[in-house]
Amino acid sequence: MIMKKNPIRVAVTGAAGNIGYALLFRIASGAMFGPDQPVALNLIEIEPGMGALKGVAMELDDCAFPLLTEIVQTSDLSVGFKDVDWALLVGSVPRKQGMERADLLGINGKVFVGQGKAINENAKPSVRVVVVGNPCNTNCLIAMKSAPNIPDEQFFAMTRLDENRAKTQLAQKAGVAVKEVSGLCVWGNHSPTMFPDFYNTKIGRQKATAVITDEAWLKDTFVPTVGQRGKAIIDARGASSAASAANAVVDTVRDLVTPTRGDYHSVCVISRGEYGTPSGIITSLPIKVDAVGKWRVVEGLRLTDYAKEQIAKSNEELLEERKVAFGQLGLSL
Ligand code: LMR
């Protein structure tokens, strides 16, 4: 097979972890960048994970993926982020039963300072960074602040998992296929305060609120179910979501490299004050990608007063997380 395209080099931290295990094989198979795009994988783990990482790399070899050109295994961030096009920051201490994602601020914050610096010094200037490790919005902000040479617009955190969860909840309630649900943006923080905006959502060609007319269910059951879904998975599985999180990483990156035809998607990006959100935080907004691959916030959505209130609460939480984390880490705004 003749490969005409240069490989896209993708770093994945926490590569031997549960999400990594569900993610790497899909990247290597072409699910993220397409069936004719070669990829090179820089697998990053902490020292104690290197043995398991070797096994993961062996399994990648054993798949004989035609698109996979190289596997780098390292615990050295300067090697791991060298010349990468994408940095998928998956590795972090996951939350356990009884914790909120924000409880991880102090534990994981330092890690993202180190990773941001290493990306700044080693990655391609065009690198794009997706943060998955929680609390992902604030970790993303920390990495962004630690990488001053990389434009802020190249940093993303993940709420696509929440959007996918929300779409399925509505589809099941309405008794339709999930592909019928569109226009569903999850706003704010990837935390229980996030707001899945059912008012702008469509089911088929109708407004979701015309199909599901029980507004109390939408407000009091649907919204908290989406916000607490990560906890429900931890309670049921004894471990946090892995395959669905990996799937959402694939969806996020694929839709950031593909010009949008139709539906927008939820991505946490740097706010410039759109829809009244505080500038300078990483918050979830409705995103489309234009023909040359540049993302933008979708304009002109009407937000109800209730939606505005919920979104404002979630963004206030992000301001508070920033205050706590930046205080602990000695970072300035
Ligand atoms: C999730 O939403 O499943 C992940 O962010 C893991 C968690 O702690 O909830």
Distance between termini? 50 Å
Strand order of the largest sheet: 3-2-1-4-5-6
Quaternary structure:
single chain
Provide the gyration radius in Å.
Answer: 19 Å
Portion of residues in helices?
40-55%
Helices, strands, pairings?
Elements: E1 8-13, H1 18-29, E2 39-44, H2 50-63, E3 68-74, H3 77-80, E4 86-89, H4 105-122, E5 128-131, H5 136-145, E6 155-157, H6 160-174, E7 181-182, E8 186-187, E9 195-196, E10 202-203, E11 206-207, H7 208-211, H8 215-227, H9 229-237, H10 243-256, E12 265-270, E13 282-289, E14 295-297, H11 305-329
Parallel strand pairs: 1-2, 1-4, 2-3, 4-5, 5-6
Antiparallel strand pairs: 7-10, 8-9, 10-11, 12-13, 13-14
Helix pairs in contact: 1-10, 4-5, 4-11, 5-11, 6-8
The chain binds (2S)-2-hydroxybutanedioic acid.
(2S)-2-hydroxybutanedioic acid (LMR) is lined by residues 95, 101, 134, 161, 230, 233, 240-241, 245.
Keywords:
333 residues, alpha/beta, three-stranded antiparallel sheet, 41% helix, 17% strand, binds (2S)-2-hydroxybutanedioic acid
Describe the structure.
The chain is α/β, with parallel strands linked by helices and 333 residues long. Helices cover 41% and strands 17% of the residues. It is built from eleven helices and 14 strands. The chain has helices spanning 18-29, 50-63, 77-80, 105-122, 136-145, 160-174, 208-211, 215-227, 229-237, 243-256, 305-329, and strands at residues 8-13, 39-44, 68-74, 86-89, 128-131, 155-157, 181-182, 186-187, 195-196, 202-203, 206-207, 265-270, 282-289, 295-297. The protein has a six-stranded parallel beta sheet, sandwiched between helices. Strands 7-10-11 form a three-stranded antiparallel beta sheet. The protein has a three-stranded antiparallel beta sheet with strand order 12-13-14. The N and C termini lie far apart (50 Å). Residues 95, 101, 134, 161, 230, 233, 240-241, 245 line the site of (2S)-2-hydroxybutanedioic acid.
